[in-house]
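User: Predict Pyridine nucleotide-disulfide oxidoreductase's structure from this.
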Amino acid sequence: MSKHVIVIGAVALGPKAACRYKRLCPDAKVTMIDQAPRISYGGCGIPYFVSGEVNTVVDLQSTPYHIVRDAAFFKTNKDVDVLINTRATSIDREAKTVSIENVLTGEKEVLSYDELVIATGSKPNMPPFEGIDLKGITPATNLEEAEVIKNAVANGEVSNAVVVGAGFIGLEMAVAFADMWGINTSVVELQDQVLPGFMPKSLARMAQTDLENNEVNVYLDESVVRFEGENGKVTKVITNKREIEADLVILAVGVSPNTEIAVEAGIECDPRGAIIVNERFQTSDPAIYSGGDCVTIPNLVTGKRGFYPLGSMANRQGRIIGTNLAGGNATMAGAIGSWCVKLFEMSCSGAGLTLEQALANGFDAISVHVEQMDRAHFFPEKALMSLQIVVDRPTRRILGMQGMNEFGDALTARINAVVPLISSHATIDDVSNLEVVYSPPFSSAMDIVNAVANVADNVLAGNNKYMDPADFETCWADRDCGDYYFIDTRLAGGAKDMCEAHPDHWHNIPNEEIRERINEIPKDKQVVMICNTGLRSYEAMLLACELGIENIKASAGGMGAQKKLSADI
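Assistant:
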């Protein structure tokens, strides 16, 4: 006798699990339930619909062949029954039933299942701010909210937008408002950097610079106190430091697992409500599966359980669940949390731990920064990529990698190449020797992903007296204290402007002149060398060390990194 599988939730994981199962067991009965009127859409595309890059909301709900994935589509093409506008209200695990209610008519029903999938996703965090119920304040997490926002913007009803939260969705929405619509846009973030928990502070500063260079106001280390409005509509955001005019507020302060139905059914969850599953994505009840934004799975770097609300993760896990519903034994050991986000001129991406996270998790970690062209330096079209690698000092194990670049596809290619190495606990030697494709229009003969591992190797060996770009910025800001001696190792033409602008602090000794001018370098100050990207200054540092200068460091990333930081230089 064929099984009846009920899937609660029909956005990402649910449809993937249902369709995979039906392909393997075409005679089985599958029923999907979702309380929304529209299902199976790309929620991560909402900012791009708001910006106008995606033309219509229907595009987010369509297949690559432009067929709308609605209830009729699933019935006709997948033989999956779909109940839209229907909320699952409770699960009786002993009786193996799900109670449902039509949200439009109030009609109730009880459905029996053989196996069940909880794919209810996540819900936006809604802090108890005073005035949060004012019109014009939204988390922008579904298609209905997206349409309201897009219509208001397109109709000229929004002059000032405020985004609360500087994570992925928050920054993507800020870019959509400022870049595509020319709206005065502000971002308010409680932490002291954008992309907190994902980007190291120095790269986060570069991302902030990209936002501010495109007229987005970024307010960090700042908290919302309340919202004010007139005639029931928001007009101001009041923080602990300022008042900001607002016709529209996007609440992008994170999400939490939408798992009340699982908690009430007695399924094992962690303190935040994320469902605990095994490698097969079975819950504590073997007849019930779950994945995506609902669950917690192991972090493959730390070994601790983590929460990864990503559409890509939900789709992969949905396929695993569908396979196992059909009697298979598909597994996923865990995740490292790979991500990417597009800003204005720059894109950001990363995987694994930042240095701050590595230290907080007890690793004896270092990170190094490299600035290098993303393809052959002689190729006409190229960009200076920023890349950082995080390494465990005693084991040389890779813990994470993060970067920024003008060409996002070039950046994600490097991050994707290293993801399996981070997952498998590989070392920097594996990255140093990683075989990557090479042709001048695509990469360098010694690619940046190899170079960043080589720099880490040199730092660990004590051959590179390394200074992080953010540390150089701090030293330069404190240049009048007299403790530092700054040497520009570029040829005279490259150093001329800085020497003229700062004659008392900026000294030019090109690499080619280090030997004959070594006596000009003081031994009683911290010597800091810098060049365009860090390569010449590293070589100059090695030579100066050989000639007896010990108190010396080379600034990683050189002037390229400093310009991205928008440093006072």
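The chain has 16 helices and 31 strands.
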